[in-house]
Amino acid sequence: MKVLGTGFGRTGTMSLKIALEKLGIGPCYHMQEIVSHPSHIKIWYDISRGDSPNWNRLFKNFNSGVDFPLSIFYEELVNEFPDAKFILTLRDFDTWYKSTANTIYKVPTMLPDWFKRVAYPIRLFIEMQVNLIWVGLFKNNFSDKESTRVVYNEHIARVKKTIPADRLLIYHINEGWGPLCDFLNVDIPESIPFPETNNTAKMLRNFAVINSLPYLFILSIVAILVILFMLVL
Length: 233
Fold this sequence. Notes:
single chain; alpha/beta; Rossmann fold; five-stranded parallel beta sheet
């Protein structure tokens, strides 16, 4: 791994993922990669239950990584990959909190329990997030904004203390290509705008689709039963 992110989700991690890939430092591991690699769901779930991570197995074929949940493990990763550089993405706390509360914090309660029991991988994925992020990181107290502010600021302070200054970039996504390319010693891409993705409105549209999954599941079962019924007539 050449570059690893230590910033919380919703601090511009998706934009950073795409930026790193455009700079040739990809593929970049991100929470969405867990979804697209089903075997990783169980691996991360086991990590959330206390198993030791096998980073080389998880990051095989990846050259960089950002976002939850890997950003929580920066203290291990800084030693596991001694040549890697680290990027701490930051965002104004109040803006970050509102965005997080309106999006990824809602994920564990979006789907009904019966559906999570039926869709086993989804259940593990959600429980992994709860164990590592909402319980492990935020001590099951994310709804208390001031308590979360303390966690947010303490994370920043610990990252700065843990990672040597020459290996760490403190970065706001709205700074664009300049600081990022300087830190990575690469040229700024010509005629390529810095990626801006995953805004709250877009995520809420995606969540509307997720909310419809249980109903689509029921409709699919009904359709299958109707077809089977017609076939035996």
